[in-house]
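Q: Predict the assembly, please.
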Amino acid sequence: MADKGTAASLVTGNALAGDNYLNHTKGLRSWLFTLDHKRIGVMYLVSILASFLLGGIFALLMRTSLLSPTKHIVSADTYNQMFTLHGAIMIFLFIIPGIPAALGNIVLPLMLGAKDVAFPRLNLASYYCWVAGAIFSLLSIVLGAVDTGWTFYTPYSTTTNTSVVAMTFGALILGFSSIFTGLNFIVTIHKLRPKGMGWFRMPLFVWGLYGTAIIQVLATPVLGITLLLLIVERTLGVGIFDPALGGDPVLYQHFFWFYSHPAVYIMILPAMGVISETVSVFSRKHIFGYKAIAFSSIAIAAISFLVWGHHMFVSGQSNLAGMIFSFLTFLVAIPSAIKVFNWVATMYKGAIRLDTPMLYVMSFLFLFGIGGLTGLFLGSLAVDVHLHDTYFVVAHFHYVMFGGTVIAFLGGLHYWWPKFTGRMYDEAWGRIAAVLVFVGFNATFFSQFVMGSKGMPRRYYNYLPEYQIYHQISTIGSFVMGIGFIIIAVYLIRSLIAGKPAPANPWGGATLEWQTTSPPPHDNFALSPEAGDPYDLEAFRWDAAVGGYVKKSDAAVAVG
Amino acid sequence: MSDTHSPHLAHHFDSPVQQFESGKLGMWIFLATEILLFGGLFCAYAVYRANHPEIFVYAHRYLDKTLGGINTAILIGSSFTMAWAVRAAQLGRQRALKVLLALTIACAFGFLGIKFVEYEHKWKEGLLWGKRYAPHAEGRAEPAADPAAAVAATPPAGVNAEEHTLIPPPARGPAGLAVSDHADERLHLEQEAPKNVQVFFSVYFAMTGLHGIHVIAGMALLGWILLRASRGEFGPDYFIPVDLAGLYWHLVDLIWIFLFPLLYLIH
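A: Predicted assembly structure:
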């Protein structure tokens, strides 16, 4: 079926001119009702990037407002709504679906040599749940923007007159979207692996997605019931969290963090998977410690369910509970560090190529290192009492969420961009933007570590003049980051029109997605591929005629 | 298109076995999410019961053990007909499949009907959740056999909290709502009405309400399966949907089997 296009593209592996998933069927309907995981992934990608833009605009407005301790460009109420919207949009609309639903959707079946995910209709349903959830969440801006912070803590969230119900109902539906993706991925990974791919032949990105999917499936329903109880509390007066009716507001915090702490690992695990792929490919070296990285993904997923109490050290929970949660929190550092050491060991004596994805890998190692280590400060009971609800916390989770997940997302986006668009982006601009984002990020958030440790509380609208210098550095840094993102947007969009056609395997990756054309055909592979070692990079060599990498053993066969 | 494939085999699966196993695994994972969804409520139940056992001991007497027991039996019966329906589909016994699916749905209707009677009674007595908890005094003197009058006598706002104790024992309620009518027990209840009884009813309505929604979803699902069965779509080669709907239905049943003793049979 796809042979005509494939035959034409066998030389370079580029299928833009032939039959590929982008032009396989035409018209808006063929996209809106598509069951093709690649198209759904692309729709997810566009949607979450739009959310990222929106959340980013709110962040920049806040940072601008904080330039001065007293003069502001927005009112205090608007400020509260902005940090709520920034948090809720970035968490629920962007970062949770970010890597799994967008990049994972595109790449997972390709990596498994499969034609699609196990349940294509459920995949589309997941996307439309996302859309519906996004509409409800954003509707709240019109109905009275929520000012509770993204955590919706009771009793404030049950008494404020802003539209908490619309926002939480949106988050509830987004939860379905997340569960559908997770369920789909677990079944896909279990049942659709190709011949020759045992569990320990899976690419590490797949391990990352697997750990993520487990958390999505097991934690998200608890958020569902929590938000449902919050909604019926507001609408019907069911007082499960209302102290006036004998309810317990701290129970809300327990429920909320039982989801929302594992959710942090929904964000970071797939990011770690992206790093595992790219660090090996751009170091031209077999991944170091494959099994250790794979198992540590699962270990992180398992421990993630047992540490939620570290968000509540000052909520009045017992000292014993605090100590246990503190201890378990420290345990997370072990598998995380195992991964970092293995990545660094992979780079050791490798032939490192500083292409854009690799710059993001190195940013990740640096920023995630800081983010992870400052997590240990916050996991210590006594230190946390001092740092709780200060900018130190804000800086910590931005180092993990942004410095970890978003940076890895950008790395993955650049890494797989040639595969799913069939075009190369401008490498020089890519590197410039990566450096700008790195520098801007550190200026924005390292200054927040400093002011946080000096006692600047988070979420405050006004502040004491002695903090102004840190706020100014932070704001300038955020502008630098903003410029970096504008550059990225411009060259990526430009590449779609004028980019050099991408070869099948521009980076020399050994995972299966590089063995089909760029962009792949509708059915992904002309012939079902057989899996080998996903990190056997030695088997590929650069071919100048192709402009990409080819398999050494196939070089002769391909022409015939 | 390809005639080597079963018409039910989706294009991205290699074999019907792979498709069947994928569907089964997917359903089991979905059931795990359902258990965790209810898990939040079970957890809330555990917390409140551990902290305030007196509320649960006091308030559970207003639930009707007889009706709850009948409903438990109905649901277990429906699980039996459901399991039998799956077997009928596997054996290709079309008529039996349709009858058994219809019986299962009928049981679900029966369950919801009885649940409605119970809810209506609570509604009339003002034994509702959180803010709506306002047991009314008049109900005591009125023969509850006249539902219209009882509804009209919905409690006024601002009922004195002490009047909890004036709730008539459910023996005065509609037939079949009897619990215990011993005068000394009633005296006991009146003396020891604890604070925050509404917590029990919040938990009760949240748990049974969410379960009821799942029963309704299950009925819709089974109705769809019945429709497909009546078109003769299922047989020994293809019975995945019946099997998966059955798994879901058993879970709905199972959750009730936990809810019944936790809410109705407290000592």
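The interface with chain A takes residues 10-13, 18, 21-22, 25-26, 29-30, 32-34, 36-41, 43-44, 47-48, 52, 55, 129-133, 195-196, 198-199, 202-203, 205-206, 210 of chain B (CB under 8 Å). Confidence is low (pLDDT under 50) at residues 138-185 of chain B.
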